[in-house]
Design a protein that fits this description.
disordered N terminus; 43 helices; single chain; 70% helix; mainly alpha; 637 residues
Length: 637
Amino acid sequence: MKLKRNPSTEDSIKKKQKLNTEDSIDYTKSLTSEDAETIESGFEELDNADNPQAIKKKVPKTDKQNKSPKKFKEKTNIKNDDKPTEKPNWKEFKKEKQELRLKRKTQKCPFYEAVVKAKKIWEHVRRDDCPKEKKETLLKDLFKYSKPHLQTMVYSHDTARIVQWMLKLGTPELRSQVINELIKHVPKMILSKYACLCVKNMLKRGDAEQRKIIINSLKGKVYTYTLHTNSAKIMDLIYTTYATPDQQNAMMHELYGASSILCDSPNVLSFTDVLKNSPNTKDIILAKTKDHIRKFVLKQKTSMQTTLVHNLIYEYVLYKNGQECDELFTSLKEFPIELFYTSKSGCHLAMYIIWSANSKEKKSILKQIKTTAATLDLATSEYGYLILLTLFDSVDDTVLVKKTIIPEILKHLEAIATNEHGRKVILSLVAWRDSSYFHPRDIDLMKKGESLKDCKKDDNVRVKELLDAISDGFLQHILNNPKFWLSSGTMAMVLLGILKSCNGAKLKEAMTSVANFLIDPNSKVKDKIGKVPVYEHSGIHLVLRKIIGHDKILAENNEATFSEILSSVITTDTLKSWVKCNRACYLLVLMIESEVELAVKNIKSLFSITMMNLLKEQKFAGAKVLVTKLNSLATNK
């Protein structure tokens, strides 16, 4: 079958040919045989464009067929003509690179050679095996090379470390020289990422006069430096550690926006006093303070971790008495609660945030504490425990508290109980606002939130639910480890609070464990005079007296008492050692005075004629009182 050509294709080709013929130059003469074949194949493709069957029938040439032997020979000839490339000299190449790098560093840093020498000396100085005399000599040389360039070296990472080591290891004279060279540049250095660390060392290693000059050089820019990322922590360090009370007041006045107004009033301490002393400019100061607080809040973590900002916001809230601060509290609720427990004012501010929060916001705070595992840090912090106490007082959802905070307290119970502030967290759960354990100042502080907190549940109901949640965990720990709770007088006070408040089946088991530990002759604790029996320790003895004194209340409620448990485990051998100790005799007297029938009966049965004679031989006051009590029991019978 003969294939028909497409007329449109033919016309287009003829037109192209006519166009080519019009040119005066014949380009076809420059074409090779291979190029001509390529053009012909192109025309064939154009002819077959409208006939797909023809394209299918056409068999493509293989790679071997396409390659002509002539072409292959040409390629081989080219390869043979090429000369083999020589291998580069890598040592020279690296050497050139190093020289170029050194040249660039020298152009960038004019004192590069001095820095290199200083680094070599520094590597010897910082070693622990460097002799003291050699170290002093090297430090002098180090300062000699560094002195002309100190003010520039502090801005670089590696050279700033050299300056810090000179301040750390140098003699007092050398430190003073280094600080005097840099002291003029502190306002600029404090803004730098690395130079601010040198300022920190200057404050630590310098004398009182040098610190005063450094702090005074920052006067007038406290707000700017507190807002800056690098200088915020240095400003906080100055305020909390190195500044005098007058300098602290001046720094706070700048944050109030009232430094120019109060320049002659160094005795003005609080924000409220500032506004009282300047009634004409009260509105201006309030507006400036509010604007400063807004910018600090926008800056977020950098400034919000500083005591300066905590004090500023807390004093503003105190002046407003927690009212008209909803917008501020809403902004602060977005921050992690852990940012605030680094300072006293920060914790007090966190308390206001919790009091003003609704149930949904309190729930998010609790979940945040659980997620960050901050319970232990809060409980053992100097002021952070107040945040936990506020949550116990303010959260109606006690089930959520049981799931978030209570498990963490039980998990780290020993670490919390041994901490001075952690013990208050435990006691707040078992002895809520009991003046026997809490200072009136803490109780009054907690009562401040009564008018602010959003709570529907009654306080007594909330306290009981939390006590029920924690009771078994505390009693189980006492049952397993009575030695821990009777290791000191302070720990015994926490034990007293737990035994007086908790109830249930485990209470009797816990008291039995304590009683067995008391009668064990190997149970001894450290006192002022050395190791003594547990019942002879002054602090623990006082707690044991109070535990026995609580038996009257337990007896009225028909519950097991400590007196009957202790009297039932005392043996004849134990009693022989007890009657020879003054404080042990007083414990026996207290058990008789508790009027618990079973306890009185047990004690009376233990004193045979031989034991009474041994008791009468003792000359201390406790033995005489015990003899009198036992005689009165015999006559009453």
